[in-house]
Amino acid sequence: MTSFSTNIKSMLTRRLVFIVGLMMLGTLATSACAVQESNTYPVETFSEMHYSQSFRAQEPPRLAPPADSVAFRTAGDSSQTYNVPDKQERAYDPVVAGELYRVNCSVCHGISGLGDGKATRHITSGSSFYATTQGSPYGAPPNLVESAASRLTERDTMVAFVTSGAVVMPSFGKLLAEEDIRDIVNYIFDDTTGLSQ
Q1: Which positions ≥6 away from 98 have C-beta within 8 Å?
Q2: C-alpha to C-alpha distances, 103 to 4, 99, 108, 117, nearest whole angstrom
């Protein structure tokens, strides 16, 4: 009986060793296939990180620098450097400025700038987000013609206000170029073809 149990024990041990060996061999085989080293597999993982000489055909030609070139020596004196203007502006065109105003401002301030745009009823609503978070509705958008005449009489002050925004007014400095903001402000102040006529 003991020889029979010894035979079963040795047979089970051999089978266990064989199964463990097969599992190790299988693990080694699958991990070796998963590690990509030559960029030759059909599914390439991180192929952009491994440079191959075959990519050279896709590169632009490399030009040699001029023989007497220097990487960087100095920026030169102040008369040779380019001065960036303090503000960006272009020639005022009332048609362009009017269209910029219509697209960006008239929904709240109205076509004529009187603060009666289509969004006014939503902004001043008691159920608006502002009213529910602050406890009272927001006031109507201001009359821009009146603001240009009495409150924000300097154009640069109004440009700064439009650029930075207000409580419910977006910061147009992130949405429009400085030239566009200046055109809109010039359109508000324009008393011949703009809002202040």
Answers
A1: 187, 193, 194
A2: 95, 6, 11, 12
Q: List pLDDT tens digits, range 32-42.
A: 555 555 555 55
Task: Report the predicted TM-score, pTM, of the whole model to 2 decimal places.
Answer: 0.56
Residue 105 lies in a domain: yes
* Domain contains 182: yes
CB 125 within 8 Å of CB 137: yes
Alpha carbons 175 and 189: distance in angstroms, whole number = 21
Q: Which domain holds residue 158?
A: 94-116+142-189
User: Could you give the dihedral angle defined by the CA atoms of residues 24, 28, 30 and 32, in that order, rounded to the nearest 10 degrees?
Assistant: 180
Supply angle C-alpha 133, 129, 115, rounded to 5: 115
Average pLDDT over residues 7-27: 85
Residue 9 lies in a domain: no
Instruction: Indicate the burial class of 94 (C-beta count within 10 angstroms; 0-12, 13-18, 19 or more).
Output: middle
